[in-house]
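Q: Okay, next protein. This is SpoIIE family protein phosphatase from Streptomyces chitinivorans. I've checked the sequence twice, so it should be correct. Can you predict the 3D structure?
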Amino acid sequence: MTAVPPEAAAVPKERPRSGPPGDDETRGLFRASDAVFAELSGPRHVVETANPAFFRALGREETTGVPLAELAPELAEQGIIGLLDGVYRTGRPYTVQDARVLLGPPGAMNEAYYDLTYEPRRGPGGRVAGVTALGVDTTAVRQARQLAAEQRALLEQIALDAPMGDILRAMTAAIEEFNPGVLVSVLLADADGRRLRHGAAPSLPDFYNRAIDGVATGEGVGSCGTAAHRRETVVVADIATHPYWEEFREPALRAGLAACWSTPITGTDGRLLGTFAMYHREPLMPREADLALAAAFARTAALAVERHRTKQARERAEAKERAARQDLAFVLEASTQIGRDLNFHDSLHRLAELSVPELAPMSAVDVLDGGRLTRIAAFAAGERGGRWPQPSGRSALRPDGETVARVLATGVTEVARRVPPSPGPWRELGVTGYVCVPLSWRGAPFAVLTLLFTGERPLQGRTVALAEELARRTAVIAHNARQYTERVELARDLQAGLLLPEPPAVPGAEVATCYRPAGEGLDVGGDFYDVFPLGGGRWAFMIGDVCGRGASAATVTGLVRHTARAVARLVEDPARAVAEVNTALLEGVRHGSAFVTLVYGRMTPGKDGLEVELVRAGHVPPLVRRGGRRVEEVAAGGMLLGVVPDPAVRTARLTLRPEETLFLVTDGFTEARSADGRFLGEEGLAAALARAGREDGAGARELLDEVVASVDRFSDAAAPSGDDSAALVVTAR
């Protein structure tokens, strides 16, 4: 350890005295050597001859003729003078290896390790006249050897990603082990480098570690704060008097600390990572070996800290990525749940439900409807009892009517980490903050999602971003649902105008009908049916299928129904009525797709039952169920309407006796497809009708319901049909 020039007063220099004659050649050899050599005379061990290395080791000027105990009083305190006394008295040499000695004047002592040999020097007659002292400084070798071993062990731990605390504690323990009397402390810098935090200091008292934990970096702030500020080693040889230690002198002295040498720990980019400090319990200046040791271990500490911070950064990045994936998964799953049914109110209801507890402990959704704010749903954790749990009923969950109104007016999310300003059960609920997120469509807010937070579940920045993303997706879903609902309702209303609201009560007959739209019911279908009176106890009926869907199909359906109703009272023969409908289609429709299949007929009560006359124009053949489950197909033919001027239809006549049934359907029934691709067909429909209901006494509704169920079973695993289906069933009574 190379000493910094001591600040103590120099010992007065005396003129060298000439000693007894000796071996000039030997003295000359040792004078140029780095080994310590001295010839001591008499029981007081007077320095007669010594080489420059001896005086450098003692930290004194070259002076002879002075007892060694007076030249270096510290040797007596360490027992060295006593060893010399023993050699002088017994005449036996003494040898020791790696002996630790403290050399130097008070306030500037240096620690060193030597291999020492004390040989008796005999005079005439063989009596011991003095002692020859020879020493080889092993400090550097010893420390280099230990340093290399410890460095290897520490680097292995760093490479194995051992915890940084374990590495720093092992480092401090290693230094303290081969430097007895040294107490090591590692402080770690905050991210901004403004303060130093406790890292490792196993030998320092806890109260002292607490006292310096969080010390600021700055000029004159102890050894460590100053070293961190300057980015260079700072040596304080005497804590008791140095001005840098004014703030921390009391705890340092109470801990028995007298000197502190601090080296900054810096990263490869020059950023401050911390400080490496070596304390001593007596005033002491470092030598070059000490400073080199501190620098070496500071570099090792820098590797450990940088690797630890890199690992932490990687773990934070991985945690952030996991959280982002979880957030994305939540948003995707929630969006799927919210949009599973295209219903405006249900989508907003699910938004409130799914927000608890994933986003917040409590949630509510309010909708602006007709200029008024309406609560759609409100949920609190623990209240999700069923598929559609009831709203919490706390109308006060709205944090502030003005806040919600302001969010609706501005379209900007409002975030508050405080209790809502409006009166409410906030203390009871433990509310500590809230978020109001607008749901907007094309810049126009129409609803607000409110999230309430508690001390157990505080508001976080990522929650706001998640809520905004979920609200944005829900706004699109809700808007589409509203448009879908309006379109379905419009289609339903139009379809209802083309169908009978309820089957009429026909004397002597039971009438049953059904209509099932294809797909999601967004368009008006082309299937229709009608039953209406003609007077005189007669009734007209029809069932048909218009080519196409939507507005054009609705137009054609209306034309067919109204034309048939208009001419039915004017012509007796059903074939003539159908011919008039065909003419109306050819003359009145300009879009070129007015193709219609139709069954039109009349029924009149008779003595044997219902007398039926009907015409089939390209439609599914009518079926008649007789007694004994016998099913017949009505033989009536003709072309579909709207194609040629003469559809070549002819009237068929039959009698429905009591309990016998006329069964009319559109091709949505016969074209029902099974999972393996088979069509039900006309034969399958006839078989289903034969199996349906009771053998005797089955009415129109019973038969229709069972045939519909049979068709559904046939196509249960198949894709949904792309065609509407309608049925008109008449049972004679």
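A: Here is a summary of the prediction. The radius of gyration is 53 Å. Confidence is low (pLDDT under 50) at residues 1-22, 384-399.
Q: Noted. On to the next one.
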